[in-house]
Design a protein that fits this description.
This protein is α+β, with helices and mostly antiparallel strands. It is 45% helix and 20% strand. Strands 1, 2, 3, 4 and 5 form a five-stranded antiparallel β-sheet that branches.
Length: 222
Amino acid sequence: MNLSEINLNDFDLREAGDWPWMGKIILAVLVIAAVLGAGYYFFTNSSLEELDRVSNEEQKLRQEFIEKQRVAANLESFRAQLKQMEAELEIMLRQLPTGTEMPDLLQDISNTGKKNGLDFELFKPEAEQPRDFYAAKPITIKAQGTYHQFGAFVSGVAALSRIVTLENATLTSKVATSKGDKKPGGAESLDIQATLQTYRYMDEASEPPAAGQQKGGRAAKK
């Protein structure tokens, strides 16, 4: 039988048993193709999607394993770095005065200024500013002195055993109206306004005073 001579209208599925062998072969091929297609759709396709999901999960787990392996390989180094950071933190904490030590530190700062020739007009500790385990305490100062005297004061404060930083400073030249406006040696006298910042360690037994309870500043005696 020639395939070109086959007319599909001549075939009735109810009489498939009487079809010529070529028609039976075509029907069998179509049935097999339909079964394979349905099987792929219902079984193979879902399996392939599951395989893709598992493959992606495998790649993710593999990456996590590589990262954890890298951390494990450097664990001793990380421990050494942590130990060093803890030691440095301990050193810094020892540089933070407690509440009972703060008055002595303020006195040391004031004495450092007077020792280096500054004439204080104002030495005012401001309200504390709590910051986690420590409290920042600004100190507003107004003084008169020369560039050299102010520089020596800043160096002296930096050399104290406690942490004290210079936040900002404004130095204004004084207009010489009398011989008293000139320092020995002809150095020009300056009006100095600055804010120092020191820090207090807040342990569990002490809490920073509220802003409303903070005592007002005091002017350092000349």
